[in-house]
């Protein structure tokens, strides 16, 4: 019985769950207000450095990520983001919820794509709270840490769990 159960363990399916939740309006009432979203990631995939992480990102950062993924993926299609609607009919809450769902679908598709998963920008986006310029610097080896160090540093300080 011993060796049989061990074989099953090795074939354990890799699962990556990514959730976009808890949209929050920042700088509410000011001209530079924006919404950011909590991205919660839980995985047993060897592709990820940290098995669980939680970061906050805004739409503009998703747009940057999609552009970078597209640039590096070659012919692999990158999933679409929800549109940036300036003329939205309905409540703001409704718009934010639609966008949240769209962002979640975007990330769910991205993390299932092996080619996109090999992009270290994606990992820093999902598993560190580095800003876009810091992610760029890190990926190009100009940051104070390597990609893995940045992710592990964030995971250890685990600000991701502070609700």
Q: What can you tell me about this protein's structure?
A:
This protein has helices spanning 2-10, 59-73, 92-111, 114-117, 120-127, 132-139, 147-157, and strands at 16-26, 34-43, 52-58. With 163 residues, the chain is of the alpha+beta class. The chain has one domain: PX Domain (2-Layer Sandwich). Strands 1-2-3 form a three-stranded antiparallel β-sheet. Strand 1 and strand 2 (34-43) form a beta hairpin. It is a peripheral membrane protein. It is found in: Cytoplasm; Endomembrane system; Endosome. Belongs to the sorting nexin family.
Neighbour order of strands in the largest sheet: 1-2-3
Q: Which percent range fits the helix content?
A: 40-55%
What gap, in angstroms, lies between the N and C termini?
43 Å
Number of helices, counting only DSSP H or I runs of 4 residues or more: 7
The assigned structural class equals alpha+beta
Number of separate strands: 3
Poorly predicted regions are 1-8
Radius of gyration: 17 Å
The helix-strand sequence is HEEEHHHHHH
CATH level-4 homologous superfamily: Phox-like domain
Q: How is the main sheet built?
A: 3 strands, antiparallel
The figure for the number of domains is: 1
The general outline is globular
Family: Belongs to the sorting nexin family.
Subcellular location: Cytoplasm; Endomembrane system; Endosome
Domain PX: 15-132
InterPro entries: PX_dom, PX_dom_sf, SNX10/11
Spell out the key features of this protein.
alpha+beta; 163 residues; protein transport; lipid-binding; disordered N terminus; phosphatidylinositol phosphate binding; PX Domain; endosome; 3-stranded antiparallel β-sheet; SNX10/11
